[in-house]
Design goal:
Helices cover about 20% and strands about 30% of the residues. With about 190 residues, the chain is of the alpha+beta class. The chain has a single domain, classed as Peptide Deformylase, CATH 3.90.45.
Length: about 190
Amino acid sequence: MAAQTVIRMGHPTLRKTADHISEGEFHTQEFKSLLVDLYDTMKKEGGIGIAAPQINISKSVALIELPEFSERYGQLPVTGLITIINPQIEFLTDDKQGFWEGCLSVPGLRGFVERPNKIRVQFQDENYQLRSLEVEGFLATVFQHELDHLFGKLFIDRLKDPSMLSYLAEFDQFIAPPKAENESNNDDLLD
């Protein structure tokens, strides 16, 4: 039970649809260890979400936790830890919003991705109980980004305009709005 290595774009596990988790599998020590490993990895890497395929486990589980403030993201809507197992997503609007996204599995790159700004997600939670959440705004983007990993997608697959993909250093230098000296230029980024 410890932080794991995050696999990077090009690894075949990131392009597979993750396997469904049965109730029997949910109750195993192996699955409980996976949840701990995911959490430890997310915290070690400074992410606000992570999916099992990112640590080379092709299982349909992701974690999201938005703290009130993050050095990387700035002010956030607090969520507490959300464990998402076997999700199904429904888009509730055609209205889109865009954020500069990044990903632990695509290090050093940022891309501007537009996604529906209101969704409903049905999933099993950490107790394997069926839940349904409607989320919007930045949190809807975070959910879509993490759940994409369970369906073999990366944020770069969602770019409408390839010219809106940048290395982080160039993003900071040429794209990000100027910030005060003590602020990060990454407050709209996802990992």
